[in-house]
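Structure, all two chains, one model.
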Amino acid sequence: MNTVTVEARDLTRAYGGRAVVSDVNFTLNKGEVLGFLGPNGAGKSTTMKMLTGNLAPTAGTVKICGIDMIENPKEAKALIGYLPETPPLYRELTVDEMLALAARIHGIPRAKVKRAVEQAKERTGLTEMGKRLCENLSTGYQQRVGIAQAIIHHPMVVVLDEPTRGLDPIQIRDIRALIKELGGEHSVILSTHILPEVEMVCDRVQIIHQGQLVFSGEIETLKRSRESNRLCIGLRRPPAAEAVLALPGVAAVEEAEGMLLVRFADGSANVAEAIVQASVAGDWGLYHIAPDATSLEDVFLHLTQQEEVVA
Amino acid sequence: MKMIFTIAGKELRSLFASPMAWVILALLQLLLSGFFMNAVGRYFEAMQGSMLPEQRIGFTAFVMPQIFGVAVLVLLTAVPLLTMRQIAEERKNHTMVFLFSSPVSLFEIVFGKFVGLMAFISLVTVMVLAMTLSMHVATDLDTAHLLTNALGLWLMAASFAALGLFMSSLTQQPIIAAIMSFIALLGLVIIDNFATDPESPLNYLSLMRHFEPLATGVLSTTDIAYFVLFIATFLVLTVRRLDADRLRG
């Protein structure tokens, strides 16, 4: 199934001449979970607001299942479920009332409202909470009600702005599982600044920095860029650098904090083996060898500092 | 259309979820019943004093304008308190996003809120009307006159609500919305006092000048049109204001 559900073209938003989001382009297919990643103030929330019709773009278009958000806002909004940064809950309503309101306002026929509310509560683990006032719920439960109201009408696209904020670790696990499950039938766009979260639940990831997309691609690509081509080795009796450099596949050697960082050429998989053998043969006293994995944070930093589209 | 009633229903529910609506209803009834008894007493005094038939006026014409006049003044202070939260607080609590991202138009949001307020105002009007109609057991009432009074009260309160809604859309602070609506309404009610000659346009602007004919039992298209235009103007301004939110962010 390769149906495009969200299509953003040259999305730009400027406040008083300063572009907060500029020329953001992407498409989302049915059943995909797209992670929107970026540091604070990068334009994540602004983009979400434009996608959901809460904010008019200065330039560019948003199409939901082919329907233009600016020309036909009602039809387009009917296909979207949105959880903003702060869950939009009427404090004086109970959870049941709040969800029933969300169902009716999204055009669910009166007779089916009750079932829709029950289903949404079940999916977000709110079954016990129906009679409680939104006002009296803890942050985590308010967040769940926020998610419940976003998915109650089975929208084609679910947009979640930092869905796991304020949740405890168990709730985070549950919500992540729910997002993965949502990805099966809906398309999900999820913004976050938590990197492992993206790795866990998203199929595709986009990194936004200072209003521009600096990376857009499969999560696998991002993971691969994590696996570095460096080995960190520790030797009791290190030989001259030339000896290591002479080993097959080794491209560069540098010293760092008593360890040797060995960079090897792409495609040479047996460098580690060669080093171990050479160490034994030359009595270098090898006590540590490990791939020098850059963390996802490093990749992220790297991407947000160079400011150019990688893929 | 269905959405308007969905939103109106939610607004009405929210109104009654706070003590405000109940307090207003109860105090209004208490205050009006006091005035009502007082007015009935004074009617007997006045009529005993006036022996000539041409000095005598009917019970409805004597008592009812007083009662409805007081009701208008009470609503002048009460309606801004009801409207102040409508949009300002939704902004403050980030619930406006809920309505903005739902498949409803801005007109449906604003009109839905207005209909919700009108449901409450209609309830107030019906309660005032029911109190005055209770005199039916003691005397012949001029029902038509009573009804124009009730219509006047209803239209006045509707105008208050429309203006209050607009003021609420201008700010994030409910209290500021309430103060601004109250001052604007008070100004519009008494503006005719500043008119120096009877042809002054200030007279046309005054809300009170359009309520008085209804209070005396005159049902004129001019007055009805004034109220309808007044309400429509402020509802359209509110829609425009919310649209600016979306455009300017």
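The mean pLDDT of chain B is 89.
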